[in-house]
Amino acid sequence: LSMPGMPMPTQQRAVAPTMSAIDRRSMLQSGALAGVMSFSLSPLAANAAEETFSSMGGALQPYIDVQKGYKLYKPLAWNQFDADAGVYDVKFQDVIESAEIIQVSSSPVASATSVRALGDLATVGEKFAKNRKAELISSSEREADGSLCYTYELQGPEFHEYLLLSVNRGKLYRLNTVASNKRWNKRSELYKNVVLSFVPKGF
Questions:
Q1: How far apart are CA 69 and CA 47, in angstroms?
Q2: 147: which of 121, 124, 189, 194 lies 20 to 30 Å off by Cα?
Q3: Is the dihedral of CA 64, 70, 76, 80 positive or negative?
């Protein structure tokens, strides 16, 4: 999964996974003004176990991008980088662990009205895992205010991540939450709730 973003530390370390242009073209066919507002968010089912969103005692706070048309909860006090055109709409980065990144990007789609246009849950997950030379740990789907979302957990040689995909109003949305394998257990719960909070519509 490709996550080109703001420059990573220059020391010798692997680069966090990103989505290549080839990946993007094959998935799609073919910044932004963002602001933080408060909004209500109903608990969202992630899978059969009925996982529900938690703000983790205030560790997550609401974020909304009116122009791009999505909302989610972001970690408190992380660095925020707005709109690197063609790469991401917004990126949040831990102030100490710079490889820990949450990134949202959106791209136009020609005619798809649902993420199912990309393929079924399993097929799309297998494709992303293969492109990233990663293991597909889990996959699930849920409805977020009427929009279907696919969510995958992927683990590569260096990095671990959740990837969410959804299509709404002529756009494919991608939410990536990445950490090193070594620190995944420290971030997985926070990332899970960020993913559960994502809604690609509502304005």
A1: 24
A2: 189
A3: negative
Considering only CA atoms, which of 104, 109, 107, 32 is closest in space to residue 67? 32
> At which residue do the structure tokens 């999964």 appear?
1
Tell me the pLDDT band of 123, cut-offs 50, 70 and 90: very high
SS3 155: strand
Q: pLDDT per residue over 30-68, tens digit each? A: 333 333 333 444 333 334 356 899 999 999 999 999 989
DSSP 112-137: --SGGGG--HHHHHHHHHHHTT-EEE
pTM of full prediction above 0.70 = yes
Helices (H), 10-120: 21-28
Alpha-carbon span 126 to 115, nearest angstrom? 15
- Specify the amino acid at residue 22: I
**Contact assessment for residue 119 and residue 127, using Cβ atoms and an 8 Å cutoff:** yes
Task: Provide φ and ψ at 99, rounded to 5°.
Answer: -80, -5
